[in-house]
Amino acid sequence: MAQIAPLASLVSGIAGLAAAQAQSRQAAAQAQAQAQAQALRNAQLQAQAEEAQRQRREALARTVASARARLAAGGLASGEGSAAALVSGLEQEARARDDADATQLRLRLSARRSSLLDDSGSFLPFVRAGATLASSLGQSIRSLLSY
């Protein structure tokens, strides 16, 4: 009867290890699902940013064409003097907005990363189950040796 207790603790330790393995698989599946969802969100943000940039380029082209047409109607050459400075200023503003939006997109994408301290996907459940198994195995051996 005294030998049943060590076997029971051994079986309990093995069951704990199996449960830890199942928990690890579930955590890995959950982590993979979160990674896929994150990749989808990132792709959506990237697509939105590209569309906004395309719209800004088109608006800039219309604005520059309109400014050149007005300047030409006023008798000024669009490639010289203040006309060139106006067009250059519009292009610089557009580049600055593109750079700011690109920086904002990078920050938004990096802010949605999962924490490096996240417990999922680690071997922590195995370590805990292994420690429990080793402890119960040690107790079983001591118990068997004492008889």
List its salient traits.
147 residues; mainly alpha; 3 helices; coiled coil
Summarize the structure in words.
By secondary structure, the protein is mostly helical. The protein has one domain (4-146). The protein contains 3 helices and no strands. The protein has helices at 4-73, 81-111, 124-146. Helix 1 runs antiparallel to helix 2 (81-111). The longest helix has 70 residues, at 4-73. It starts with a helix and ends with a helix. The model is unreliable at 114-119 (pLDDT under 50). Residues 28-62 form a coiled coil. Keywords: Coiled coil.
Present the secondary structure layout.
Elements: H1 4-73, H2 81-111, H3 124-146
Helix pairs in contact: 1-2, 1-3
Give the overall form.
Answer: rod-shaped
> Major beta sheet, specifics?
none
Low-confidence stretches: 114-119
Order of helices and strands: HHH
